[in-house]
Every structure is written in structure tokens, then in C-alpha cells.
Amino acid sequence: GPFGSLTLHNDRARAAIFIAGGIGITPFMSILRQAAQDQLPQRLLLLYSNRRPEDAAFLAELQQIEQQNKNFRLVATMTQMNNSSQPWEGETGPLNQELIGKISGDLSAPIYYLAGPPGMVESMRQTLNQAGIDDDGIRSEEFYGY
Q: What is the pTM of this model?
């Protein structure tokens, strides 16, 4: 199962960028719900990757949270839209350095949170490292048993 302590950092001046793959969204949901309820002034960005919209757990709720919390932005991407029965107007393709840079470019010294399948988490950690993000600015949780 998942291990570790994945909680939001206390420095509200630093943004949080959550990167989730599939059911890796689960540990972030309580953080995002609480931030919306408490109306935290902290900027929060979620990059959420799934194969298809119908596979994206909590997608409707995340879209609703984005409407309620002006400091939260959701960027969802779908990687296998050719297999989808639902339309999708958002991003497509895998998470990569270009997308992360485009979406997070105006955030200064954010803390990155990664959760999802081990391969995705490791790939994102390497991508962030290659972009100059030190491991001290990255927190992660890996989900085994998919």
C-alpha cells in the first residue's frame, strides 16, 4: 500500500503543484477539499493525467473545487482519447517538461507533490530534476498493485 506522509507544506507563500496519475489523485483530494473549505490563500495547481475522461476519478468534483477556489487551478490531460466514448476539450498526451513549464511558469519556488503508479512518479521526478528542481522541493507517494 501507500506509505509516507503526504501533507501540504506550511509556507503559504509557496505554491503547491500536485502531479497525479490515475488513482494517485486520492491523497490530494483531502488536501484540495480542505484548502477550498478553509479558503487558503496559497496557490494550488493540479496536473492530473488519465487515459480517458471516464477513467478520471473525482474529475467532476475537481472541476467544482476549481470553480469555488480562486487559488486552485486544475489541468487535466488524457493520454488515450482514441479509446474514449466521451468528448474532451482539455489537454491531451502525457505529462512532460514542456506542459509542466507552460502551466507552472509564473509560480515562484513551488513544492511539487507526486502520486501515482511507481513508473509515472519516477518519470516525473526525473523530469523535474532535469528542469532544475531539487529533490528537496519534491514530495512523493507511489501506489503499487495496479
A: 0.93
Residue pLDDT, tens place only, 81-115: 999 999 999 999 999 999 999 989 889 899 999 99
Q: Is 48 left (phi over 0), alpha (psi -120 to 50) or beta?
A: beta
Cell 503508479 sits on residue: 117
